[in-house]
Amino acid sequence: MSGAGAGLAAGGAGAAGAAPAGTRELELKAVVPDPAALAARLAAAGAALTFRGVMRDRRYDRPDGSLVARDEVLRVRAFEPRGAGAAHAELTFKGPTQRTNGYKEREELQFGVEDAAAAGAALERLGYAVSDVIDRAVEYHEVAGAAVRIEWYPRMDVLVEVEGAPEEIERAALVTGIPRGDFTAERLLDFAARYRERTGREPVLRLDLLAPGERPGWPQWAARP
Fold it and tell me: How far is CA 47 from CA 36, 63, 100, 167, in A?
């Protein structure tokens, strides 16, 4: 997790703060069976809502796929708020995934950029090309010292990601009311595969791949104002 509301890896709440060199992010994810119940539990625990809006990821790679082959990520992320706040973006590099005491851990280098399109164009001038696209509606909350992000995809389960130090993750996971055993260090594609196996439907993580006329599985507030 990064950017708006990321307590461990980024700067201030709701801002595209710069992560110091060598930042290690620790996180877990889980499927959210009842988003309304999760929001209610977070509010009851005094969680601060630091961002609500649409988050658009564009991942870049060399033509030979060398970044993916090394399990590295080069990403431009754009934040489009719904409500108060200004749009912003960030450029992020992530190192290979590790599993540390059951948590997903990666090195993360990140800094804010004024223009996501310009940042992408600069990467393309350097020989990179868009290799993956992910669009989602998100809410960032801060609770129990951790950053909690609720994620709605165009067509897939709603997920929650919890990031922080181990003790912060454990406290925040308890606040969610989701069984601790449901939280894993798996990747997003693993959650997508389970959705496909369970429902028989193809998960869709980017808006332009939805069927004609199909509405994304997002909250009503995520519609463009």
Answer: 14, 43, 27, 17
